[in-house]
Amino acid sequence: EVVRELGAEEVRWFYREDRKTWKPFIGYDSLRIELAFRALGGGGAGEPAAVEPVCVRSGLYEVDVASAESYPVYWNQTEKIPVMRGQWFIDGTWQPLEEEESNLIEQEHLNRFKGQQLQESFDMEISKPVDGKEAIHSLKLSRNHVDWHSVDEVYLYSDATTSKIARTVTQKLGFSKASSSGTRLHRGYVEEATLEDKPPQTSHIVFVVHGIGQKMDQGRIIKNTAMMRDTARKVEEKYFSNLATHVEFLPVEWRSKLTLDGDTVDSITPDKVRGLRDMLNSSAMDIMYYTSPLYRDELVKGLQQELNRLYSLFCSRNPEFEEKGGKVSIVSHSLGCVITYDIMTGWNPVRLYEQLLQKEEEELEEHWMSYEERRLLEELYITKQRLREIEERLHELKASTISKPPVLKFKVENFFCMGSPLAVFLALRGIRPGSSGSQDHILPRTICNRLLNIFHPTDPVAYRLEPLILKHYSNISPVQIHWYNTANPLPYEHMKPSFLNPSKEPTSAPEPESASAAPSPTTSPVMVRRHYGESITNIGKASILGAASIGKGLGGMLFSRFGRSSATPQTMETGKDGPEGDEKKATTVGTPPLPHSSSGFLEPTVELEHRIDFELREGLVESRYWSAVTSHTAYWSSLDIALFLLTFMYKQDQEETDKSNLDTV
C-alpha cells in the first residue's frame, strides 16, 4: 500500500450540538456529505459549484456543506449546529483534530510521503520506543508541532507547556501527556464509511404536541421531543433491533406563532412574586385562553395547521411512506391533549350551545302553558325549523362547489395522552358514563384506532378517562406501566384487572364474614376511594419486594372476562395488596343480576374492550409533594414510557405484517 490522497470513505464528518463533543455522522451520511464537499470544489474557474443540501440523521436535518452548518428540517432552531470534516484523529478517543490543523498536517503528509510505501509489520515499533527514534520529518503549528517518526507513526507535541491556556486546550482535546510523550495521530477514521451503514426506513411517525406553558420557553418542546427520541432509540436498540422499521418523533410547536392578546395579560400582572405569576400566566393562562371563545379557534387552528404542515412536508420528503402504508400516532401533553382531541372530533362550544337550546325546547313542551304562549312557541318552532332548512340548503350548495377537506390529512393510529386534563373537560361538557365498554363513547374508532391515557400517580393535572365510559371503573385501578428493565413482562392485554381496595389499610386481614361477601368491582357502588398509592410505605414495600403495587395485574380485558354470566357466581382474582398478603386467593363472589340501580350501574358483565388508563409506577424515594411539582413534566425522558409507546406501535405493525403474510399465503 502506498500513501495516496484520502478516499471519501476514509474521511469522517462530525457534528456538534449544545457545544458538547464532536459526534460522528453514520457512514451513509458522512459519505454523502463528503461527495457534496468534493463537488463543491469542482466548480471550475474558481466558481464554487451550487450543491444541494445533504439530508442526514434519518432525514431530520440537512447539512449545508458550503457554510459547514447543519439545521433541522421540521422545526426552527436558533442555534446552528456546526459540522466538521475529520481527516486526522487522536489516538484512543478518535476525536477529529480541528480542521485548520488537520488540513496543514494532511498537506505536509502528502508533500513528503505521497507514493511512498506504508510499513507492513510493526516489529520496528516494538523494538524501539518512539522517544528514542529520530523524527524523519517535522511540522511547526501555532502551539504544537507534529513529528513523523515514520510514514504511519505521527505524533503531536505541545510546545506551550508553560501556557495555561494551551494546557487546558490540550487536555480538552484528550491528549494524555501532550507535553512530554506526545499524542499519536491517525490518518483516516477508525472505520470506513459505507452506504450500507444507513438508518432503517421510517414506518411510523409520532407527532409530539406540547401543552400549556410553552410560551415560557419556546424551544422546550423541541428539547422534550429530542429527549423522547433519544430515549426511544435506546429502547429500540435494546428490544426492537431485529425489526427493519423505525419510529420517528417530530415536535409540533404550535404556540409561539400565535399572538393571542399581545402583552395585555403581562401588563395587568402585579409585580410581587413575579416569577410565580409568570409561570402561572404561561401555564394556567393557556387553559383560560382555551376556554375563551375569542382565542379558542386561534389555538385550534394553530395546532391543526402545524400538524398538517408537518405531515405534508414529511410525505414530500419520504414519498414511499404513504405507499407502504406508513402510520401516524400523536403523543400530547397536558392541554395539548384537549386541543388534539377537539381537532380530531371536531368538537366546538357552538355545538354544545345548540344541544342545550334543543333540550330547553323539549323541557318547555312538557310544561303547562296558556293558549297564546303555546301558539307563539309553535310559531317560533316552525320559524326555527324553516331557518334550519335554509341553512342546510345553503350548506349543500356550498359543499357541492367546494368539497371541504378533512380536518387532518391523516388517520390517527394511536392517541397517547400524557398528564392529561381531558377527562375533566369532557365531564364539564356533559359526558357521562354509558352502558357499553367501547372507546367510541368518547373517541370513535373510525377517527382514532386506540386511545391511551398515561399519567404519573402524583401529577396534579392528570385525570382518568375510564370511569367516563363505565362508571364502575373508578373502583378498578389503572394498568401499571412496566418498568423498562422488567424481564419478560406480561403483555398488557393479558393483565387481569385489579380492584381498588376501599379499606384504609390494604395489608390488614379481612374479617371472616366480610371475606365471603367481598363486593366485586362491577357491582359495588362507587365508594369513597382510598386514593391508590396514598401510603407510600405500602407502595415502597410492595415494589421493593418485586410485587407490583396495589394495582397488581391489570389491563386490557381482551382475553379475560370479568363476569361471563351475571347469574352464576364468578371468581375474581384480587391481587395481593401488600407483601404480607398470602398467595393470591380466588374469592368467590356472588353477583345477582342488577336492575338499573340509583348508583348508575348496569349489567355487571359490561367491561372495557381495551384498557385506556395507564399509570407510571411511583418512585421509592421522591417526596409526594415534590413529585407533584415535578411529575407533570417527568414524562419526556422516561424509559418506561418510551418502551410503552414503542410496544403499542410495533405490536400493531407486527400484527399487520403477520396478517398480510397470511393473506399472501
TrEMBL record:
Low complexity bias spans: 502-525
InterPro entries, A to Z: DDHD_dom, PA-PLA1
GO function term, MF aspect, one: metal ion binding
Query: In what ranges is there compositional bias, type Basic and acidic residues?
Result: 574-586
**Transmembrane segments in this chain: where?**
none
Q: Which GO CC annotations does the UniProt entry carry?
A: cytoplasm
Positions of the region Disordered? Answer: 495-526, 565-601
Pfam hit, one? DDHD
Q: DDHD domain: from which residue to which, for each copy?
A: 408-651
Assigned protein family:
Belongs to the PA-PLA1 family.
Q: What name has this protein been given in UniProt?
A: DDHD1 Phospholipase
The protein's organism comes out as: Dicaeum eximium
- What's the source species' lineage? Eukaryota, Metazoa, Chordata, Craniata, Vertebrata
